[in-house]
UniProtKB/TrEMBL annotation, chains A, B:
The keyword Lyase applies. The keyword 4Fe-4S does not apply. Gene3D superfamilies: Aldolase class I. SMART domains: DHDPS. Pfam families: DHDPS. Keywords: Lyase. It comes from Streptomyces venetus. Belongs to the DapA family. InterPro entries: Aldolase_TIM, DapA-like. This is Dihydrodipicolinate synthase family protein.
Length: 299, 299
């Protein structure tokens, strides 16, 4: 399950309102139809941190109901361990095939805090878990030593790593180094979409993908090429999408851009982010629309 | 209200359990008896980010009930604007004299996000507000331009700034620069306890104090000396407390240290932090106990 393309849909949340469940169900159904390998509900792109535990339980249920049998991985991160435990139980009750856990922080966390969190959560879990390393949102930096301690805990099945070095040889060396540290059963998945082709070329088993959640076709094209060993083709597809990666960098991450893109495609209402997050302004949206047309991402 | 010593008590939270309301009430009462100028309930030291909105509403009520007329400033930060609005209403209903708002983030926030948040919240507020600038927990960095935009919003009464430059002349220049930017009605309060004496010497009106919430006596001694213009004495008191500041730096902030100190003084149970945050280990607690004895902080 933790290989190939894992597509992370938005959870559309209009400003100060509640989840647009209908639009979310459609987004999930669309990914199942496209044939992604798994669906990552309530990831960072799915704004899990902004929802109540009740809202998250409902969203997890909707995801599983509309995934048409495609495995759903549900984000269970929260500031308190007891919230994570509750969310894990809710996700399992909803039928999640796996869970994704980031060490969300307010007070900076120590390695022992994070190990204790994962130890307690995995001891209470009956589905596999993805370790979610996203320093841009959690502000926690994993060391290789901590990866190694965590990877042997029960249920740990994959690590979602942040972007790799630009240089292909260095990227490959990094993935090979991780492989030596980790049990054979634990897969390594790349995140940071701009690094996806490079990551798959370097030996990553999975792409935990933001654009896959809104533009599954190009993400699948890139992934299938890489899986078939056609890495040049995968890298070319990534290069073709460079204007998108540039927009991600320009807007401090991918969320605001894919949210505006989903609205542009008519998949969600225009207001689809939880305040205080503001979407792109009119000029930025117009520019994004041009990029989407030029890249032929409209179908 | 936003001058002098604002003391921030812990909210004791045992691991995966609920707030120890009795211990919290005692902590607040102790501050009122000591004669602090205001009480900052549910600040970062009060672990606001780890509590549900219901728990926060209860804690705000308990704080006001046990503050014996000392003004209580309640932290209202949350990831979603709608949660902040609800928390602000709950704080006002509880009798808060003011509120404290930090731009808590998961996805990185833009200046426009933060301005929009403060604009919406202050438009719905009938008590004064402190802008809470704490990049160590929010990972948001205020610019002077944003300070200036925010300071003219209705209800804005104070800014809680992070530590100042070490050099006294530079610190003074910084505070004087802020003064020129801000309306006369907006006070400037220093946070980062190690910088308190320097901050008050540099012209800050208030000290938003972590140790004041657990050790009100030395915090009051320092503040009263500074308020009387006896800055040498205030700086000496701060130097005397250097072993505490060293422990704060060593433990990635003040929270774990004051939590262990409060337990050592018998003010809370030993387990008083929300998991995944772990307290100091036995050896660290023993060292802290020695420091507390040597500094005569036991009464």
């Amino acid at each position: 399950m933790f290989t190939g393309l894992s597509a992370f849909p938005l959870t559309p949340i209009p400003g100060n309102g509640s989840v647009d469940e209908k639009a979310f169900a459609s987004l999930v159904g669309r990914l199942a139809t496209a044939g992604v390998d798994s669906i990552g509900a309530l990831g960072s792109t799915g704004s899990y941190a902004y929802l109540t535990l009740k809202e998250r339980a409902r969203v997890a249920r909707i995801a599983v109901e509309h995934a048409d049998g495609v495995p759903v991985i549900v984000g269970i991160g929260a500031l308190r361990t007891r919230q994570v435990l509750q969310t894990a139980e809710d996700a399992q009750n909803a039928g999640a095939a796996g869970v994704l856990l980031a060490p969300v922080s307010y007070q900076p966390l120590t390695d022992d805090d994070v190990f204790g969190l994962f130890e307690e959560v995995t001891a209470n879990l009956s589905v596999p878990l993805v370790i979610y390393d996203n320093p841009g949102t959690t502000h926690f930096t994993f060391t290789d030593e901590l990866y190694t301690r965590l990877a042997w805990l029960p249920q740990v099945a994959s690590i979602k790593i942040p972007a790799l070095p630009d240089d292909p040889a260095q990227a490959r060396a990094r993935v090979e180094h991780l492989r030596r540290l980790l049990p054979e059963t634990v897969t390594v998945g790349i995140s940071g979409d701009a690094a996806a082709a490079r990551g798959l070329h370097a030996g990553c088993d999975a792409w935990y993908s933001v654009i896959g959640g809104t533009f599954p076709q190009p993400a699948l094209a890139l992934t299938r090429a890489a899986q078939a060993g056609r890495h040049e083709q995968a890298l070319e597809e990534s290069q073709r999408l460079q204007p998108l990666w540039d927009l991600f960098a320009q807007h401090g991450g991918s969320l605001r851009v894919v949210a505006a893109a989903a609205a542009h495609l008519g998949l969600t209402a225009h207001r689809n982010l939880p305040l205080p997050l503001r979407g792109l302004d009119a000029k930025e949206r117009a520019h994004l629309a041009t990029v989407i047309e030029q890249l032929q991402l409209t179908t």
